[in-house]
Amino acid sequence: MSLYNVVNGCKLVAVLLLWLGASAEDKPTGRAHASEPQELTPRGSTGLSDVVLVIQSQRNSFHARRGGQRKVEILQQAAELGQGVPVVLLLHELSEFEGDWSILPLLPNLSATYGQSASWFFFIEEETSVLLPNLLQVLQRYQVQEEWFLGKRLHDNEPSIIHHYAFSEDPGSFSYPDPAAGWALSTPLLQRLAERIQHKPLKSDFTIDLKHEVALYIWEEGNGPKLTAVPEFCTETRDNCATTFTTYLPNCGDPVSRKEVFVAVKTCQKFHSERLPVVKATWEKDAEFLEYYSDVTDASIPTINLGVPNTERGHCGKTFAILRRFLSKAVPKTDWLLIVDDDTLISLPRLRRLLRCYDPKEAVSLGERYGYSLLLNGYSYTTGGAGMVLSRAAVSMLLSSGCRCYSDDAPDDMVLGRCFTFLRVPITHSPLFHQARPYDYSETLEQAVSFHKHWNIDPMIVFKRWLQDTHPRDEL
Predict the structure, then answer these.
(1) Is the model more confident about 358 or about 29?
(2) For labelling alongside 230, which of 164, 400, 413, 422 has CA 20 to 30 A away?
(3) Which has more confidence, 191 or 13?
(4) Average pLDDT for 385-410
(5) At what angle do helices 392-401 and 316-327 cross, to 10 degrees?
(6) Strand 183-186 to strand 365-367: parallel, antiparallel, or no bridges (unpaired)?
(7) Cβ neighbour number for residue 313 with a 10 Å cutoff
(8) pLDDT beyond 90 at 30
């Protein structure tokens, strides 16, 4: 055996031992480590063993695999450095609690398990790369006995509906972290937040934009720390970066075929002449199979009446009728169902690229994830306006379960989310889907699969600017 193979074999064994050792120690048990409590490390001597890295992984098999790969990369890097081993956690493995993805419900568990042994808690996305020596250099600049909230600064340029129009007089005065660049909490801050979250409920039942709401909770109306901007927390590679980010639209191979996606557009008679011409002029041409479902039949469009009256609020009855039709012989059999509103703007070519990452034989519910009453055993759901993507397996499981609408005008996306949560089907989040308009998000927004609403915008311009590829890939 060559020396090269021996060395690399040893490295692989070392990484596996590190991962197995970390896995045995880093599973929270709801109590502190059995080892003796350690003093918090003073400024200037933070080591890798003082850091807990939380990879914000998801339960879907693709995301769990990507999170696991990121964990191996970090542990291998630590082994090569020989400066200690950080605790590396996969968020989706920490507990069975659905609301952990929103971070705040997770803090008491992290505090109880690691609060006596760690100085820093660092949160990253599955696609965030970390350079450990640079990360340590950053953390060593701050007194670990103090409360610190570190990240790459984002802010709103104008009041935003997804942030409940907070700081409407001066939107830029409040900053929140870019999750793609990673963000950190010192242990004293995490411990105080963990104590507070158990005794003081959130002001809103809804979790809409995680990064903004976490920052708002930490800020505590001016009584808590603001975000401290860290230039080394990066999304693009440059000198001295501690983190870099690849993409929310990974390359998993050729896009799925056009013939594997069935598109259902929910509409009603009063919007036939106002909204449907936009769909037809923008993204309809990219769909192989598409049907418009309305409260009336109009052969000129054409629309299909599913026998469910139009409602002014939710559209649960209509959506469940669409699900039943999707499994029937009335439409072509496809792997994927996309349900959108008539004022949704979407890039189907990008969606098909994204879908290549997922297994259609798995129960998949994909879109922009919101949460309802997550601190009180609530549920998550994909927002309807941003587009709800369901695998055939997910639709079949849902309908066979007997889960149904409590009324035709119930909110369809929330009912689906509640049903899938009951069935233990993970609600899979992609930041590429957007329930609101481009201008309701931070100025760093670059990639997108969808936007929603025509209010105060020219939808044709928005589609051309954000969703129309100049050089589209070959269609399959």
Answers:
(1) 358
(2) 164
(3) 191
(4) 97
(5) 120
(6) unpaired
(7) 10
(8) no
Beta strands across the sheet bearing 336-341 = 303-305, 289-294, 261-266, 336-341, 388-391, 365-367, 427-429
Give the total residue count for the chain: 476
Structure tokens at 212: 């903004």
Half-sphere exposure of 235 (CA within 13 A, CB side): 16
Who's near 200: CB < 8 A, 6+ residues apart? none
Structure tokens at 61: 């098999």
pLDDT at 250: 94
d(CA 377, CA 97): 8
Burial tier of 78 (Cβ tally within 10 Å: 0-12, 13-18, 19+): buried
CA separation for the pair 91, 243 (Å, rounded): 19
Only one residue has tokens 């701050």, namely 142
Helix ranges, 425-473 (H): 459-462
What pTM does this model have?
Answer: 0.89
Task: Find tokens 């009041």 and name the residue.
Answer: 159
CB atoms within 10 A of CB 328: 9
Q: Which of 386, 299, 300, 404 is nearest to 340 (CA)?
A: 386
- Local confidence band at 35 (pLDDT 50, 70, 90 cut-offs): very low
Encode 178-208: b = buried (16+ Cβ within 10 Å), e = exposed: bbbbbbbbbbbbbbbbbebbeeeebeeeebb
Which phi-psi region, left, alpha or beta, contains residue 440 (left: φ > 0; alpha: ψ -120 to 50)? alpha
pLDDT of amino acid 15: 43
More confident residue, 375 or 181: 181
Closest CA to 230 of 218, 214, 216, 241: 241
CA distance 110 to 118: 10
Instruction: Share the mean pLDDT of the chain.
Output: 90
Instruction: Specify whether the CB–CB gap between 107 and 23 falls below 8 A.
Output: no
Rounded to an integer, the average pLDDT of 56-64 is: 98
Amino acid identity, position 383: T
The set of residues, in sequence order, having a beta carbon less than 8 Å from that of 99 and lying 6+ positions away, is: 105, 207, 371, 374, 375, 377, 378, 380
pLDDT of residue 313: 82
- Token pair belonging to 380: 């998550």
* Cα 400 versus chain centre, distance: 28
Q: Using the 8-state DSSP alphabet, how is residue 252 labeled?
A: -
* pLDDT tens sequence across 304-320: 999 998 887 889 999 99
CA distance 406 to 396: 19
Rg (CA), the chain: 24
